[in-house]
Amino acid sequence: MGAITVLVSVGTAGAQFQPWQQQLSEIYDLGLSEAALFLTGVPEEEERRAIYALVEDLGICVPFCHIRSEMSGEEIRYLMAKFGMEMFNVHSLADYPLKFSPAEFYGQILLENGYLSPIDAREAEIVGNLCLDLAHLEVLRWINPAWYEHTLAVALRWPVLASHVGAIRSPVAGNGAEHTLHALEDFDYLHALPRHFFGKYMAIELFNSASSQLEAKRHIEEKILATK
């Protein structure tokens, strides 16, 4: 199987995230040349353009991105041409209709699973590839085994090209998924998952600082991926 790249990420969906300017500056100061970009919390195109400008100024490559459904095909092509974006994920097409045809980006657009509803196999067929949110998947295993088995079946049928990595503490108490890492043991759930569920890119999805994410990245590479 091919190499897996674990990416530190810039997050925007939630007040717990540091300002994106601070996140990008820290990534640059850490000497990282690439990062994942989560644009879900930036509805205004003008602000997204400001993010792109700083990414360009800092010389950061963005091979993977979580886009917003209302983004245009033109904006997506810009990210590919400017920052080397190879693939991007979207949420449910029914809940978040796209402004472009998925066929235009077949092989690069990925459908993400959730835990509030089962992944739609028909949408997976339309998109053609998956981005597994691994924390969502683990939550399903605890709160809805039927949806969990359904997601596994879809993931075995359609290629998983990328994944999101969150923290899991106590799945039996509430939904268990967190975007804040408290201890590296919060990634232990990844040990039980097959390597092909990780995809080419594993994007860390945490409120934690870039330096904390870098520590998490090294842990995942050395303690989890090295055993697969």
Characteristic terms for this protein:
TIM Barrel, 11 strands, alpha/beta, globular, 9-stranded parallel sheet, 228 residues, two-stranded antiparallel ribbon
Number of strands: 11
Strand content: 15-25%
The biggest sheet amounts to: 9 strands, parallel
- The ordered H/E elements are EEHEHEHEEHEHHEEEEH
Q: Quaternary status of these chains?
A: single chain
Question: Helical segment tally?
Answer: 7
Major β-sheet strand ordering: 1-11-8-7-6-5-4-3-2
Classified by CATH, the class is Alpha Beta
Question: Helix/strand-derived class?
Answer: alpha/beta
Based on the coordinates given, report the CATH architecture.
Answer: Alpha-Beta Barrel
Task: Summarize the entry for a quick read.
This protein has 228 residues and is α/β, with parallel strands linked by helices.
Explain this structure.
The structure is a single chain. With 228 residues, the chain is α/β, with parallel strands linked by helices. The chain has one domain: Alpha-Beta Barrel (TIM Barrel), CATH 3.20.20. The protein is 35% helix and 16% strand. The chain contains seven helices and eleven strands. The strands form two sheets. It has a nine-stranded parallel β-sheet with strand order 1-11-8-7-6-5-4-3-2. A two-stranded antiparallel ribbon has the order 9-10. Helix 1 runs parallel beside helix 2 (45-58) and helix 5 runs antiparallel to helix 6. It is globular and about 45 Å long. The model has no long low-confidence stretch (mean pLDDT 94).
